[in-house]
Write a structure and sequence with these properties.
478 residues; 2 domains; 19 helices; 70% helix
Length: 478
């Protein structure tokens, strides 16, 4: 079930809110049970058989959390329980997400003829599995009280706002809120506004950019197009469109998830902080998908020794492991691994060279911003391509290789048709509107105008949803 769908906006969400705040408002236990059942129904709507995988994950991690808590004071035994839990969760991800990829590559490298299994990928498996790991590890670290109630663990892992595309909610962030959150009209109002803004990002901006990006990437020879079908300008436009599409797709979903959480009294951490204003790859990853970055930092990088290790070689190795894992986490394809390793190279260069992330010079700042965005866009080309061969061909077209014309009719058509969306996407990927809001005086008129704008975004977004416009969610694949 998509947040940007008729069934969610007009039926599921209103029904859940109505029951939660009327029939069950006096019982936190019944509210939690209801949210758990609603979340499982939400997941089962599109993936009914994979609810069993979800329930297995909930049951095993709840049990392992109890074992870890029971071993508190027996450090070695507790560590063993955590290790077993991590292995179990990684095995789930491996079987569903990477087994086919692994067998296919073994066949290709060793000339074997092993049967490649056909296994469907459960939506959001990487997100809810990482949350499950977070629960057991945080209980071990004493950063959250163990949940003896299976229902509460189930709610944490399966809560529908962030279930299938994040943000990755750490257990320590919401451990207290599961039983002791306090709903308020202010939170509900702010959450509703945040949801509408996220809906607008997704439906109006991301979906519009998807049309351009999908066309451009389909025009490669590797995808069956004739040589010269994609011009240099169209290739750059497609790459820029995908850069905007993936940002508004994922940040829009995160906004909706954070807003929905607030509507039920949960406060999730932010997941994006205007990443496209970054002046380095390092800064970009402090601003992009922050829940994933901090997850790998706290559960992989720091346990490996982080930057505290004395050896530069070991420090570089720690960075390599993190970025290899980041690439692998995104999918079973060499393109994702190459994309992760690209950032490993960039971040290693920035960390150990004379490159300075924060400069005071305006000229230097613009140069660094261009440098950062160039590699971000190049990285998204690898990320979007079906395979490395397609990515290489697309790069060749972008830089004028082969028989690619400089401009074509498709470029002129898409520019003229989507210019407003492209400019709006560039504008709203910066904090310029946030800065403008601070300068606008607060009074009844500006409040009314703001409410009108939010209502306008909602009405226009809903009209697009009702019309059934193109509506993919990129991060459902991860």
């Amino acid at each position: 079930m998509l947040f940007s769908s008729n069934i969610f906006v007009f039926i599921f969400l209103p029904a859940v809110i109505l029951v939660y705040y009327t029939i069950l408002r006096r019982s936190r236990t019944l509210q939690n049970l209801f949210l758990l059942l609603a979340s499982l129904f939400f997941y089962a709507w599109g993936e009914p058989r994979f609810v069993l995988v979800m329930l297995l994950s909930i049951g095993i991690n709840w049990f392992m959390g109890l074992l870890v808590d029971a071993c508190r004071g027996q450090r070695r035994k507790a560590k063993l329980m955590v290790l077993l839990d991590v292995i179990f969760n990684l095995c789930i991800i491996f079987i569903f997400k990477y087994l086919m990829f692994t067998v296919a590559n073994i066949n290709a490298l060793l000339g074997c003829s092993l049967r490649v299994p056909s296994i469907a990928l459960p939506i959001g498996i990487s997100f809810f599995t990482f949350q499950a790991i977070s629960y057991v590890v945080d209980v071990y670290r004493g950063k959250g009280e163990v949940q003896k109630n299976l229902m509460n663990v189930g709610l944490y892992i399966s809560f529908f706002p962030q279930l299938i595309a994040g943000p990755i909610v750490r257990y320590e962030t919401v451990a207290y809120q599961i039983q002791h959150r306090k709903e308020s009209f202010a939170d509900f109002s702010q959450g509703s506004v945040r949801f509408i803004i996220g809906l607008g990002k997704k439906v109006l901006l991301s979906n519009s950019m998807a049309v351009i990006a999908d066309y451009a990437f389909s025009m490669t020879v590797s995808n069956g197009a004739e040589p010269g079908s994609l011009s240099v300008c169209m290739a750059w436009l497609g790459a820029i469109a995908y850069t905007l599409q993936i940002f508004f797709d994922f940040s829009g979903y995160s906004d909706m998830a954070i807003g929905l959480g607030k509507m039920f009294g949960f406060h999730f951490l932010e997941n994006f902080d205007y990443p496209y204003i970054s002046k380095s790859a390092t800064e970009f990853w402090r601003r992009w998908h922050m829940s994933l970055g901090t997850w790998f930092r706290d559960y992989v990088y720091i346990p490996l020794g982080g930057s505290r290790v004395k050896s530069r070689g070991r420090h570089i190795f720690n960075l390599f492991v993190v970025w290899l894992c980041t690439g692998i986490w995104h999918g079973a394809n060499w393109t994702f691994i190459l994309w992760g390793l690209m950032y490993f190279v960039l971040l290693t260069f920035e960390k150990f060279s004379c490159f300075q992330i924060n400069g005071n010079s305006r000229k230097t700042g613009w140069c660094k911003h261009i440098y950062a965005m160039f590699f971000v866009i190049m990285g998204w080309v690898i990320f979007r391509a079906e395979n490395i061969h397609v990515a290489a061909e697309y790069y060749g077209t972008m830089f004028g290789g082969g028989t690619a014309p400089f401009v074509d009719n498709a470029f002129v058509e898409y520019i003229s048709q989507y210019a407003v969306y492209i400019l709006a996407g560039i504008l709203f990927s910066t904090p310029i509107m946030k800065k403008a809001e601070k300068r606008i005086p607060q009074n009844w008129f500006t409040d009314l105008a703001y409410a009108a704008v939010i209502m306008g975004i909602f009405i226009i977004s809903v009209s697009f949803i009702v019309k059934g416009t193109y509506n993919p969610f990129i991060y459902f694949n991860f």
